């Protein structure tokens, strides 16, 4: 079928894994090819997850819906009187990626240190103005992880699976190139250190004969190349898997065809306040790596949750902002969605103090000078350690005034919530400023 006939055509589509590939008889029905084209168009419309933070956020069209994310378990009370926020997961199995890449999902964010994406590649082989001869498909999974807390190495695992050929195709001679690319970094002068296989080129049959069809690529940027974000020494980037298909001679259609799954947004930093400041004695390994997606701080309202009072306060601020103090009919506190994330305030100690002072002033004003009676603290949300804290309007005249909430809560619960927040910052490598962000979720 691969002869030099002008009426042979190969048309390839990029599809979400949840899209059903039509049978040959279905493909012969009017409008079937157009439906595949529409699904492929929608899948390729946005490559940047909604939760992306930092410079990569504006690199390509952003998705309009939140991606599937993993919510960490709520902290458990500790007998010794201390609390510990859960460690973010740093592994991602192929089975996990398969499980979560369903429906129209383009990316799964397990944590800032474990993400994956997948793409179903479907080629229709037709003749005589679109009469279907056969269909071939395969799936490419890309998993990105940062395996170690104290290492700057980022790993990308590729799996090419689920090969199918239906009826008559020329897929045996179709060349497939899968490449891991870095189309953009901030700053542009940053130089990558790469090992492994970041480009693999084989025919569909050659990939299918591999057991398994798997290859890996490691990537890192040395410290000292970063930019902005205060003292973070951050290198931001875009990591993009590119799949290129070249049909055998004699087949018309886009040739080569290029498809791109959802992009990843990796980041490397070496801020002294972020962990691993010395590299364990190896200066070239200072700092760490992560993916620039807004993580979620999970607080619980369970009766035995150490942070319960704070969780209940934030829940009220999210669901009934008009009932909180100070009064503000337009109040909508941030932290609930990716377009209104919170930003860590670390480097400006004066502004943190101003946030705290403004919160205490409002506690006294609305709950009385004795609001601490019974062992209570003035709790504020957004947190004093964020740019959205109580004094935000004093630093930015364009924001809504009194767009925060204060409430006296039990001192122990307030302090435990603060300990958990500090651990969350460190474990997720949240950097100071607008190039990062995080969300808050309140669970029962």
Can you give a write-up of this model?
The chain is an alpha+beta fold and 444 residues long. 18% of the residues lie in helices and 30% in strands. The protein is built from eight helices and 18 strands. Strands 1, 2, 3, 4, 5, 6, 8 and 10 form an eight-stranded mixed sheet that branches. Strands 7, 9, 11, 12, 13 and 14 form a six-stranded antiparallel sheet that branches. A hairpin with a 2-residue loop joins strand 3 and strand 4. The protein is elongated and about 85 Å long. The mean pLDDT is 91.
Task: Give the secondary structure arrangement, pairings included.
Blueprint: E1 8-15, H1 24-27, H2 32-43, E2 68-69, H3 94-100, E3 107-111, E4 114-127, E5 131-145, E6 154-167, E7 175-186, E8 192-196, E9 199-203, H4 204-209, E10 214-221, E11 235-246, E12 257-259, E13 266-269, E14 288-291, E15 296-300, H5 308-319, H6 349-367, E16 376-381, H7 392-395, E17 405-410, H8 411-427, E18 439-443
Parallel strand pairs: 2-3, 15-18
Antiparallel strand pairs: 1-4, 3-4, 4-5, 5-6, 6-10, 7-9, 7-11, 8-10, 11-12, 11-13, 13-14, 16-17
């Amino acid at each position: 079928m691969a002869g030099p006939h002008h009426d042979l055509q190969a048309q390839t589509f990029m599809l979400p894994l949840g899209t059903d590939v039509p049978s040959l008889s279905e493909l012969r029905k009017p409008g079937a090819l157009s439906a595949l084209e529409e699904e492929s168009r929608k899948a390729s419309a946005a490559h940047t997850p909604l939760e992306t933070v930092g410079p990569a956020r504006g690199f390509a069209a952003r998705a309009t819906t939140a991606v599937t994310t993993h919510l960490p378990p709520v902290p458990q009370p500790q007998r010794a009187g201390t609390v510990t926020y859960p460690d973010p997961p740093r592994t991602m199995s192929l089975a996990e990626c398969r499980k979560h890449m369903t429906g129209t999902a383009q990316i799964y964010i397990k944590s800032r240190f474990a993400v994956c994406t997948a793409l179903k590649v479907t080629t229709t082989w037709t003749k005589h103005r679109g009469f279907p001869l056969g269909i071939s498909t395969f799936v490419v999974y890309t998993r990105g992880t940062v395996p170690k807390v104290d290492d700057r190495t980022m790993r990308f695992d590729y799996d090419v699976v689920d090969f199918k050929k239906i009826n008559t195709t020329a897929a045996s001679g179709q060349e497939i190139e899968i490449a891991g690319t870095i189309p953009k970094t901030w700053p542009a002068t940053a130089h990558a250190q790469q090992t492994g296989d970041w480009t693999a080129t084989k025919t569909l049959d050659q990939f299918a004969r591999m057991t398994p069809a798997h290859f890996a690529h490691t990537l890192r940027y040395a410290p000292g190349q970063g930019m902005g974000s205060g003292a973070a020494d951050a290198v931001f980037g875009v990591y993009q898997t590119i799949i290129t298909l070249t049909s055998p001679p004699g087949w018309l259609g886009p040739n080569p065809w290029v498809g791109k799954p959802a992009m990843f947004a990796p980041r490397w930093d070496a801020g002294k306040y972020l962990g691993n400041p010395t590299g364990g004695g190896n200066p070239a390994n200072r700092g760490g790596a992560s993916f620039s997606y807004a993580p979620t701080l999970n607080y619980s309202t369970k009766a035995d949750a150490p942070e319960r009072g704070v969780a209940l306060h934030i829940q009220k601020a999210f669901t009934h902002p008009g009932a909180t103090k100070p009064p503000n009919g337009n109040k909508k506190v941030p932290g609930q969605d990716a377009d209104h994330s919170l930003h860590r305030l670390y480097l400006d100690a004066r502004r943190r103090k101003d946030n705290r002072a403004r919160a205490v002033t409002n506690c006294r004003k609305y709950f009385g000078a004795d609001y601490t009676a019974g062992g209570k603290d003035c709790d504020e949300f957004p947190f004093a350690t964020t740019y959205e804290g109580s004094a935000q309007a004093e630093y930015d005249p364009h924001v809504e005034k009194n767009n925060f909430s204060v409430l006296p809560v039990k001192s122990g619960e307030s302090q435990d919530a603060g300990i958990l927040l500090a651990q969350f910052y460190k474990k997720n490598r949240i950097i100071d400023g607008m190039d990062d962000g995080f969300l808050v979720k309140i669970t029962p």
